[in-house]
Amino acid sequence: MHSESNSLPPPSPMYRWLVLLFVSLAMFGNYYVYDSLWPVVDLMREQLGFSYQQIGWLSTAYNIAALCVLLIGGYIIDRWGTKKAITFFALVCLAAAALTAVSSRFEVILAGRFLLGIGAEPLIVAATTVLAKWFKGRELSFAFGINLSISRLGTASADWSPNFAGPLYATWQDPLWLATGVACVSVTAAWLYWVTEKRAEGRFQLATPSATEKLDIKSLYKFSASYWYIVALCVVFYATIFPFRSFAIDYFQQAHGVTREAAGLLSSMLPMAAIILTPLFGLWVDRVGRRSIFMLVGTVLMLPLFLAVSYLPPGPLVNLTVPFIGSEMVPLTLVVVIFFLGAAFSLIPAVMWPSVAYIVDGRRMGSAYAMMTMCQQLGWAVVPLVVGLLNDRNSAGPLNPAGYAPAMWLYTALVAVGVYFAFKLWQTENGPNGHGLDRTRMQSPAS
């Protein structure tokens, strides 16, 4: 049986690209459902009486759930196989989307967001495993890039939804039912992947994916200072960017007086920048090296942005256009700030995540990435609660836009901490204990 399996041909291009399409569409729905909540924040506050701190809890619940499944999600994928796992987790996301939309009670919506975290994070791991199985040795990096781009289009589409689904935004509930419909597309795509792989079994030789990342506590003390500086930078970076995105559409509306449609276009600049710039930055860094320098530059670039959006004059109105979606008049200052924030959002992850592979022994790679992901989720979970508390205590709103300033100072303080860790990383990498992150060509530590 073993020799017969090895004699099978590799998957045909048609099968591989079909699998990529279906898995990417499943991820598109996953990302859309997560981000569908943020354009209705103001409606939840007006129609349901939610506080900003309650909105923060709706973000935090997702992260708490993601932490709960971090250690068992991979086991389920290994145990069930990718066909069952990706379909199951897509169904969980569909149930979560429906639960979030079905009731006006805060506890029910909170449960929906928690359930989404249970399904969405393992779905991402399952999709990664599928691509490794189908594309290993054949355009794997390109397949990952396409998958991530389509996934982030889900985020951007949620931001654009006030433009293409404007009539739904008379209430908080209808846009979330739209997200439930998008989740149905995700489940359908997952099922089509199952059918495609089922037909391919016995006809093609598929790669055996690597073991799912596991957290080995015993190996943590062996990690270098550079690794921990990257982990710390990861925590403060994502604890700044993602909570800001969660409140961004509402913030642009309340503090700067732009329409929901304009706020959505502004917010979508972040994922669109990542789609376009992240692979370009990755190629650039591979050519020139200087990885620790780029992480430092990206973090320094972020430092003045949140205060700029708070205190600089808005400037003239300019036309912000997204082809096939819409165009809106927005203050120039907001466009410039979000443009530079999008550049940092693209540059830092493009350098940060691959750098771990160069400074951690291959035998401990799973533990390294699992610890990094766990710390990322912890930081991301805490900050939305603090931002919500600050907004509530300072009576932030259209009648008191200055009430949003303390949250912007919090983001700035987090970025300042990130600058410190990025500087320490650069200092270490240019000292006797460096791993050569700033060299053009590098080798991973021996495994």
TrEMBL record:
Keywords assigned by UniProt, alphabetized: Lysosome, Membrane, Transmembrane, Transmembrane helix, Transport
Membrane-spanning ranges: 14-34, 55-77, 83-102, 114-135, 176-195, 227-244, 264-285, 292-312, 332-356, 368-390, 402-423
Keyword flag RNA-binding: no
Gene3D superfamilies documented for this protein: MFS general substrate transporter like domains
InterPro entries: MFS, MFS_dom, MFS_trans_sf, MFSD1
SUPFAM superfamilies: MFS general substrate transporter
GO cellular component: lysosomal membrane
Places the protein is found: Lysosome membrane
Pfam families: MFS_1
Reaction(s) catalysed (UniProt annotation): L-alpha-aminoacyl-L-arginine(out) = L-alpha-aminoacyl-L-arginine(in); L-aspartyl-L-lysine(out) = L-aspartyl-L-lysine(in); L-arginyl-glycine(out) = L-arginyl-glycine(in); L-alpha-aminoacyl-L-histidine(out) = L-alpha-aminoacyl-L-histidine(in)
UniProt topology in membrane: Multi-pass membrane protein
MF terms (GO), sorted A to Z: transmembrane transporter activity
Domain Major facilitator superfamily (MFS) profile: start-end pairs: 19-430
Keyword Transport: yes
Signal peptide: none
Family of the protein in this entry: Belongs to the major facilitator superfamily.
Subunit structure: Homodimer. Interacts with lysosomal protein GLMP (via lumenal domain); the interaction starts while both proteins are still in the endoplasmic reticulum and is required for stabilization of MFSD1 in lysosomes but has no direct effect on its targeting to lysosomes or transporter activity.
Record's function text: Lysosomal dipeptide uniporter that selectively exports lysine, arginine or histidine-containing dipeptides with a net positive charge from the lysosome lumen into the cytosol. Could play a role in a specific type of protein O-glycosylation indirectly regulating macrophages migration and tissue invasion. Also essential for liver homeostasis.
Protein name (Swiss-Prot/TrEMBL): Lysosomal dipeptide transporter MFSD1
Organism: Aliidiomarina sanyensis
